[in-house]
Amino acid sequence: MTPMTLPRPDYAIVVPTIGRESLRRLLIALQSGSGPAPAEVVLVDDRPRPATDLPVPAGLAVRVLRSGGRGPAAARNAGWRATTARWVCFLDDDVQPDANWTSALAADLRAADAASAVGSQAVIEVPAETSRRPTDDERRTLRLAEARWITADMAYRRDVLVAAGGFDERFPRAYREDSDLALRITESGGEIVRGERRCTHPVAPATWWSSVRAQVGNRDNALMRRKHGRSWRAKVGEGPGRMPAHVATTAAGLAAVGAAVLRRGFAARAAAGLWLALTAEFAARRWLAGPRSVLEALRLSASSTLIPPAAVAHRLAGEWTFRRARRDPPLAVLLDRDDTLIVDEPYLNDPSGVRPTRGADRALARLRRRGLLLAVVTNQSGVARGLISPDQLTAVNARVDEVLGPFDSWQVCVHDETDGCRCRKPRPGMVLAAAEALAVPPTRCVMIGDTGGDVQAALAADAKAVLVPTGRTLPAEIHHARAHAKVAETLDDAVSLVLRECQ
Questions:
Q1: Same structural domain for residues 47 and 91?
Q2: Strand bridging mode 445-449 / 464-467
Q3: How many domains does the chain have?
């Protein structure tokens, strides 16, 4: 087979962005590149409140989505779930692809398929200053060129993203979310190979306090440890880190202050001396690796004093936040319609009769703020019985969507109990269909409803369930739910149970 007859790879490009000027350069590079074109380019605008349009060059067909400022993990998830291409290539909005990037990507994806790999990592080049040694901040960016699994340019098979649940949105920054996803994929038996395509990553602009602000990443390190164990650094190809030294430095500083307050002169001087020695060693180590200028010495002396307590504080905050973190938290909530979202009116056929249940709007708002996908899963046998027309059902559901939505998916069974369909609850058909429509594993879904059929449908699909009983819920259904699922008094209480699992 000649290169001209090679099959075209089925791939989409997803670019999360906060509207930086570099986005336009990236899109122009994609527009002018040679090779098989992507099935689509999806831009995910992650600005909380966009005041201007994204700088999309004329003539380039893109789809623009919004993710509400929830971070790159959430933005990437919104992008890949919106496309159906077999491969999804993620590009950051500040990289610059080479002129032949599109052709090289196609070759990389073919090579990955041939090797039965599920991911393909690009070569990331970071331009270095040649006239001097790089500064401490510059070295932090230069390390990206050697990093494993960096998502500045990374392609994954979409079915693998579905199985893994995508990026963990508990990582709110562009830090560790890519390592976490890749680690989960490789630990499940998937292989990620290095490709030949190349992108240039700019050196991030730095200030005197950039390295201090960067210590917020220690919160994400706490989540990595919670999810992957104490050896997570080795698993992602990193060294042990400096947290033990930062803890020792911070403890010495606190001991010096405490001893001084208690007027323990010798202890205060000893602790202060230890703090000074540890801080000086840290500053000297950073300075010797860099340009060794007087200005750099002053800058590193100041930041080396602040980094240890900042790192420890962020790590402690992360350990507390993720003290009960689950490895695989829920990604989607499936909700029954009648007596869960809206007051049940038998065979409701008039949109004006739609009345939300008490607290439904607040409960749904809590779920949406956490970025959970929402679907309605409802039996509507009134259609099969001739009590509701399909148009009336559509109008009622549209009103529910208007009052309480939008929902990410609607799954409606219009069959009667005697029809023998696979979708009607307590069968799992609609739960499985909702999971497929939302591109999440059924095991990462939680069904909330008011009947035993809701619970049974969820459990049959390997999903979780929360029963919110009403006056018409049978005692046996409540007993079954207490034994095999969870029971909550109200919809808001059920949401609290779900959000507790999302920590």
A1: yes
A2: parallel
A3: 3
Tokens of 142: 């230069």
Instruction: Please calculate the CA angle 8-12-16 and round it to the nearest 5 degrees.
Output: 155
Contacts of 426 (CB under 8 A, 6+ apart): 452, 453, 454, 455, 456, 457, 460
Residue 224 lies in a domain: no
Burial 59-70 (b: 16+ CB within 10 A, else e): eeebeebebbeb
Of 6, 7, 14, 156, nearest in space to 78 by CA: 14
Task: Tell me the β-bridge partners of 157.
Answer: 87
Q: CA 70 to CA 173: how far, in whole Å? A: 9
Q: Tell me, letter by letter, the H, E, C secondary structure of 296-365.
A: HHHHHHHHHHHHHHHHHHHHHHHHHHCCCCCCCCCCEEEECCECCCECCCCCCCCHHHCCECCCHHHHHH
Is residue 417 a part of any domain in this protein? yes
Contact 317, 451 (CB under 8 A): no
Can you give the pLDDT of all 503 residues of the chain as single tens digits?
444 555 678 999 999 999 998 999 999 999 988 888 899 999 999 999 888 889 888 888 899 999 999 999 999 999 999 999 999 999 999 999 999 999 999 999 999 999 999 999 999 999 887 778 888 888 888 888 888 899 999 999 999 999 999 999 999 999 999 999 999 999 999 999 999 999 999 887 778 899 999 999 999 999 999 999 999 999 999 988 899 999 999 999 999 999 999 999 999 999 999 999 999 999 999 999 888 889 889 999 999 999 999 999 999 999 999 998 888 999 999 999 999 999 999 999 999 999 999 999 999 999 999 999 999 999 999 999 999 999 999 999 999 999 998 999 999 999 998 898 999 999 999 999 999 999 999 999 999 999 999 999 999 999 999 999 999 999 999 999 999 999 999 999 999 999 999 87
Helix, strand, coil % over all residues of the chain, rounded to 5: 45, 15, 40
Same domain (yes/no): 275, 402: no
Integer-rounded Cα radius of gyration of the chain: 27
Domain CATH for 392: 3.40.50.1000
Q: Is residue 36 a contact partner of residue 8, using CB atoms and an 8 Å limit?
A: yes
The model carries a pTM of: 0.91
Contact at 8 Å (CB) between 153 and 15?
no
Same domain (yes/no): 185, 282: no
Amino acid symbol at 406: P
Give CA–CA dist 219/479, Å, rounded. 41
Question: DSSP string of 406-465?
Answer: --SEEEEE---GGG--SSSTTSSHHHHHHHHHHTS-GGGEEEEESSHHHHHHHHHTT-EE
Are the C-beta atoms of residues 268 and 260 closer than 8 Å to each other? Answer: yes
Side-chain half-sphere exposure of 7, counting CA atoms within 13 A: 8
Task: Look at residue 193 and give its three-state secondary structure.
Answer: strand
What residues are annotated to the active site? Answer: 336, 338
DSSP 2: -
